[in-house]
Design goal:
Keywords: Membrane, Transmembrane, Transmembrane helix. This is Cytochrome B. The chain is mostly helical.
Length: 141
């Protein structure tokens, strides 16, 4: 197993942990927001772990970016769907998603009411997970 194949499989497999944690946080946030539940320690920890998981995935992706043969900086890069996707499109979409999830977590921490905490997580994590899904679905076959 090469270093590249290890990180590729690690990055690919870890995405399921990210998706599950973000979706769980999202479902709990919507349930808390719509039913006006209190924002407890369980909510805080789940939201934090979801955010940590996307940041961990980013770190794995950064390593993969620098060792991947799919990332190329040549004049042909933008003409090829695969190299363009991995060199430019994928990481830009994912950075935006991670930034939104991080902003949502930060806004949730600063919010005064439980409803505002749940709402911040629900909105920002939803946009983040949609972008993550789009980024995954755009992977060239």
């Amino acid at each position: 197993m090469t270093l590249y194949s290890f990180f590729k499989e690690f990055h690919s497999g870890f995405r399921y942990i990210v998706i599950v944690l973000v979706l769980l946080a999202l479902v709990r946030a919507f349930m808390g927001w719509l039913s006006k539940r209190p924002y407890g320690e369980g909510n805080r920890k789940l939201n934090l772990f979801a955010m940590i998981s996307v940041h961990t995935q980013l770190l794995i992706g950064i390593v993969l970016f620098f060792i991947s043969p799919m990332v190329q900086f040549t004049k042909e890069t933008m003409k090829n769907n695969v190299t363009r996707y991995f060199t430019v499109e994928h990481w830009v979409i994912m950075i935006i998603a991670i930034a939104l999830i991080t902003i949502g977590h930060s806004k949730s921490k600063k919010a005064a009411t439980p409803e505002a905490k749940h709402k911040a997580i629900a909105i920002f994590y939803l946009i983040g997970i949609v972008l993550i899904a789009v980024g995954i679905m755009l992977i060239p076959q």
